[in-house]
Predict the structure of Translation initiation factor IF-2.
Amino acid sequence: ELSNRMAVRGVDIIKFLMKQGLMMKINDVIDTDTAELVADEFGMTVRRVSESDVEAGFLSDDIDEEATTPRAPVVAIMGHVDHGKTSLLDALRTTDVASGEAGGITQHIGAYQVRTPGGDAVTFLDTPGHAAFSAMRTRGANVTDIVILVVAADDGVMPQTIESIQHAKAAGAPIIVAINKVDKPDADPQKVINELLQYEIIGEALGGDTQIVEVSAKSKTNLDGLIEAILLQAEVMDLKADPERSAEGVVIEAKLDKGRGPVATVLVKRGTLRRGDIVVAGSAWGKVRALLNERNEQLTEAGPSVPVEILGLDEAPSPGEPLAVVESEARARELTEYRARTKREKATGGINQVSLVDMMAKLGSKKISELPVLIKSDVQGSGEAIQGSLEKMGNDEVRARVVYSGAGGITESDVQLAKSAGAPILGFNVRASKQAKDLADREGVEIRYYAIIYDLLDDMKGVLSGMLAPLQ
Ligand code: GDP
C-alpha cells in the first residue's frame, strides 16, 4: 500500500527496511513511525491524518483483492526461437473482432488487445521471447498473468522452451502450451506432450492441470481454441482491478519519436488513465497529451489491462518502469528529481564515487588531507610540469598528490587505477576512449579536461583552498 501510494517499488522499501534491521515481507504491516521514516527516505512528505479521515475514506485505496471489476488477462508468448512466436502473435492479431470496421491493428506499440465474438478481451504482450519478459521482471514489474508456451510440433522441447518454463514458474504465471505447426507433415504433438512431462507440465488428458492446445499459426487453425483456453484460465484466476481509482501502470515500451517526442506504451494495471492526467514513470514525467491504441485511435481514457501509447512525457522511460498518476506538476517534479538523483548516485556507486566535489566535502570535514589525482597529458613534458606545480600547492593540512602521470589518451586501465586510488583524472590535451568514458561513468570516476595548464592549476588551487577554508 505504501509502495503504491509513493509510486516506489515494494522491493526498494523492503531493502531500505532491511538496512534498518527490519526483515519485512511485502504484505507485512509497519507502524506509523517506520512508515514515516520510509516516506522520508524516498523524498516524500508525510501528512498525519486522524482516524476519522481514514474512516471517511481518505486512505481507503483498495488493493486488487478487494476489487470487483473483472479485467482482461495479460498474456506473454514465449518459447524456442523459430517455433512460431511472432507468427502466432500476427495470427492472433487478426482474430480481433473489433478490427473489422475500425481498420485493424495498424501499429506496433508493444502490446495489443483482441476482442472475442463473446465480448471478452485478451491483452497480448507483443514482444515475444523471455528477454523482454525478464527485463521487466528485474525491474519488479510483473505484468504477465498467463504465459503461452509455444512449442513446434516438428521440433519438440528445446533449450529455450525449458528456459521459458523456468521464467514462467519463477514469475508464478500459469502456462498454456500451444503446440504449433501442426499443419506440417512431420508434426508430432504427442512427442511434445510426452517431453513436457519431464518439466512437470502435465496436460489435462493425463490428469494434470495444464491446458495444451494444438494450433497452426500459418494456416490459422484453432486460434479460437487457444483464445478459449486463455479465457478459461483467466476465469479460474478471477482477475480483477478497480477502474475507479487513479491510474497505475507499467511501461512496456518507450521511444523518442522524431515528430511526436517521447512516446511510451503503458499497460494500465489498475485505475483509469485519462488524457490530461499528470503522470510519473521512473525519472520521466508529463501531462498526458494524447492516448492512442494499437489501431491508432485517440482515446480519452484507458482502464485496467488496456495498453495505450501516451504522448506528453518529458523523456522516454525504461520498459518495466512503474507509472503512476500524481496530483500536481509540482509533485511530479519533486518525485522525478528525487529519482534522477538516486539513479545518478546508484550509477556512480554512491558514496564511493571519485569526484572533486566529493573530495572537497571529505577534505572539508578533515576525513582526508590529501587530494590524490591522476594526470594524463599529450606529452610527457607537460605532465611533468603539471605534476611539479601541483606538488608545490597546498600546505601541511592539505595538498595534492599525483598518483600517476603519463602521456597519451585516457584508457580503461587509467580509470581502474584512478578508482582504486580514489583519484579523479585530469586530462591535459587528451581525451578518454569510449570504453574508458563508459567505465568512468559506471565507476563514478570523474574526468576533467583541460587545454591550458593555468586553468588546470587554478582549478586545483580552488579545490584545495576550498578545503582549507573550514566549512563552518
Ligand atoms: P519465432 O522465432 O518463434 O518468432 O518464430 P517465427 O514466428 O519467426 O516462425 C519461424 C518460422 O516458422 C517461420 O518461417 C514461420 O513461417 C514458420 N512457422 C510459424 N508458424 C508456423 C506454422 O504454424 N506452420 C508452419 N508450417 N510454419 C510455421
Remarks:
- Residues 50-62, 348-352 have pLDDT under 50 and may be disordered.
